[in-house]
UniProtKB/TrEMBL annotation:
<feature type="domain" description="Major facilitator superfamily (MFS) profile">
    <location>
        <begin position="45"/>
        <end position="464"/>
    </location>
</feature>
<keyword id="KW-0812">Transmembrane</keyword>
<feature type="transmembrane region" description="Helical">
    <location>
        <begin position="405"/>
        <end position="422"/>
    </location>
</feature>
<dbReference type="Pfam" id="PF07690">
    <property type="entry name" value="MFS_1"/>
</dbReference>
<feature type="transmembrane region" description="Helical">
    <location>
        <begin position="442"/>
        <end position="460"/>
    </location>
</feature>
<protein>
    <recommendedName>
        <fullName>Major facilitator superfamily (MFS) profile domain-containing protein</fullName>
    </recommendedName>
</protein>
<feature type="transmembrane region" description="Helical">
    <location>
        <begin position="204"/>
        <end position="227"/>
    </location>
</feature>
<keyword id="KW-0472">Membrane</keyword>
<dbReference type="InterPro" id="IPR036259">
    <property type="entry name" value="MFS_trans_sf"/>
</dbReference>
<keyword id="KW-1133">Transmembrane helix</keyword>
<feature type="transmembrane region" description="Helical">
    <location>
        <begin position="318"/>
        <end position="336"/>
    </location>
</feature>
<feature type="transmembrane region" description="Helical">
    <location>
        <begin position="277"/>
        <end position="298"/>
    </location>
</feature>
<feature type="transmembrane region" description="Helical">
    <location>
        <begin position="348"/>
        <end position="367"/>
    </location>
</feature>
<feature type="transmembrane region" description="Helical">
    <location>
        <begin position="373"/>
        <end position="393"/>
    </location>
</feature>
<dbReference type="InterPro" id="IPR020846">
    <property type="entry name" value="MFS_dom"/>
</dbReference>
<feature type="compositionally biased region" description="Basic and acidic residues">
    <location>
        <begin position="476"/>
        <end position="488"/>
    </location>
</feature>
<keyword id="KW-0813">Transport</keyword>
Length: 509
């Protein structure tokens, strides 16, 4: 490798072509000690993050698969009771989002997140014993309440350990495991329906809930020993894979990236966070994403209502998994591109167009099944763009660990508050599979998402983002605590990595 002079008089070797490719695909960290630390972090933190999100979606997807595989008939679902069942989960999810995210920070991620997961796993298994729809309502509400912390809580943990050049691809891969969980649920339901249906007097959909518990419980327990908490307050049970020098390295890296540790929630931090423009501006596109994302979830209902597949339970469960596979592929593409560009907004912007087209196709509802397949599969590509937006928010609010948690918790709470009732109006079960307004509305939501991205860029370049600077170092004037970000997403800085909310950057690591 040839050498190049970089700021501060340091001599830095230029990366080879393979080094640049390797950095895009995963990482190309030059310091061997730092590289070893990140690999160790991947083996522990990323493993449990992905497994935990996998089982979260395994337990979510089983309801749709069980409903399409005999639960509807067994429990006597009528009218819009299926929508109500989904809503009960979402209501619990909404109620648990904000307090659950704050509890993750206040108590300890390695205590709170696994404990919630252990309890919700037990309740998922209890769904197999439900004798009526109303029992499922109560169970799904509590499950939603407990699952609410999993996504924002783990996203906050990831943002506490990984730098800007590493976070994008890992957050998206974390998100992509939701598709893996949903795919696996489809395969699992197809397998248990053909192999266990009727065994011991239980139906295939009941075995699905029981098998979910068998898979999820060991992963939930492993979280107590694999989630490392945060660098300044590491989990002692995770010290078997994170050594003292790793903790020191993590603290040094977070200082380098201007990513502040937690100092404790205060009214002032909450007020300063929620009176800034950031959470309220991101609320609009993120809510559109959350509600619009559900448009692909009705594919199995369309398959069940189509003569070609209506009596083929295996096909109804397996065919949609192709869309989840596509979602995983797009997640990798978007993650690599986002980290290669060292910026988030182009992927958020471009990623909104495929689901926009997909929803327009389904809004037209063409007669050809091939066109409907194209519409549904294009909708699956939307999954990773929400994770990239939250990675973007993580970086913008990096100056306070509490502010990151508050903002992420608020965005998820607000979005799922809308999502708790919106599907009942735009996708009523009584109209399945051809909804009068459904796909027209979700097409409009993705159009709003696309329009919102350049607006956010303008605001980032013109409005201040709050920071939380040590008053013992600064004068305490309000102007000392706020800086503007004219170059935060500037194309002139594409060769740099955004380090924090102050708009400064560091060389790619």
């Amino acid at each position: 490798m040839s050498q190049a002079i970089v700021p501060h008089g340091e001599v830095r070797q230029k990366r080879t072509l393979w080094g640049k490719i390797r950095r895009i695909i995963w990482d190309d960290i030059e310091d061997p000690e730092e590289r070893a630390f990140v690999r160790r972090l991947d083996c522990g933190l990323m493993t449990i993050a992905m497994l935990g999100y996998f089982v979260k979606y395994l337990s979510q997807a089983n309801v749709a698969n069980a409903y399409a595989s005999g639960m509807k008939e067994s429990l006597g679902f009528t009218g819009n009771e299926y929508n109500t069942l989904l809503t009960m989960f979402t209501v619990g999810y909404v109620i648990g989002q904000f307090p659950g995210t704050l509890a993750t920070v206040r108590i300890s991620p390695s205590i709170w997140l696994p404990t919630c997961e252990v309890v919700w796993t037990a309740l998922v298994m209890a769904c197999a014993a439900a004798k009526n729809v109303h029992t499922l309502y109560g169970l799904r509400f509590i499950i939603g309440l407990l699952e609410a912390s999993a996504y924002p809580g783990m996203l906050w943990v990831l943002g506490s350990w990984y730098g800007p050049a590493e976070l994008g691809k890992r957050v998206v891969m974390f998100q992509a495991t939701s598709s893996v969980g949903t795919m696996f649920s489809g395969y699992l339901q197809a397998a248990v329906h053909s192999g266990l249906n009727g065994v011991g007097g239980l139906t295939g959909w009941q075995y699905l809930f029981l098998m979910d518990g068998v898979i999820c419980m060991p992963i939930a327990i492993a979280g107590y020993f694999l989630i490392p908490d945060i660098p300044t307050k590491p989990n002692p049970r995770a010290r078997w894979y994170l050594r003292d020098q790793d903790i020191k390295m993590a603290i040094s890296r977070m200082e380098r990236y201007k990513r502040a540790p937690t100092k404790g929630f205060t009214i002032e931090i909450f007020k300063k966070t929620m009176t800034s423009w950031v959470p309220w501006t991101f609320f609009i596109p993120y809510t559109c994403f959350v509600v619009g994302l559900g448009s692909y979830a009705y594919m199995n209902l369309w398959l069940k209502a189509t003569p070609q597949w209506k009596n083929n339970i295996t096909a109804i469960n397996v065919i949609p998994t192709g869309g989840y596979g596509l979602s995983i592929v797009m997640s990798l593409i978007y993650a690599w591109t986002s980290d290669a560009l060292n910026t988030r907004w182009p992927i958020c912007f471009i990623g909104g167009f495929p689901p926009l087209v997909g929803n327009i196709i389904l809004a037209v509802w063409p007669s050809a099944n091939s066109a409907k397949f194209a519409g549904f599969f294009l909708n699956f590509t939307a999954t990773p763009i929400g994770a990239i937006m939250l990675a973007w928010v993580n970086e913008i609010m990096a100056a306070s660990g509490e502010a990151r948690a508050i903002t992420i918790g608020f965005l998820n709470t607000a979005a799922y508050t809308v999502n708790a009732w919106a599907p009942n109006l735009i996708f009523p079960a009584s109209q399945a599979p051809h909804y009068k307004a459904g796909y027209k509305v979700t097409a409009a939501f993705f159009a709003i998402w696309i329009i919102s991205i350049p607006i956010i860029i303008v605001l980032l370049r013109s409005l201040p983002v709050p920071t939380w600077i040590d008053e013992s170092v600064h004068s305490g004037k309000e102007d000392d605590n706020i800086e503007k970000h004219p170059d935060l997403e500037s194309s002139l800085n594409r060769s740099m990595v955004v380090a924090g909310v102050d708009g400064k950057a560091t060389e790619p690591q």
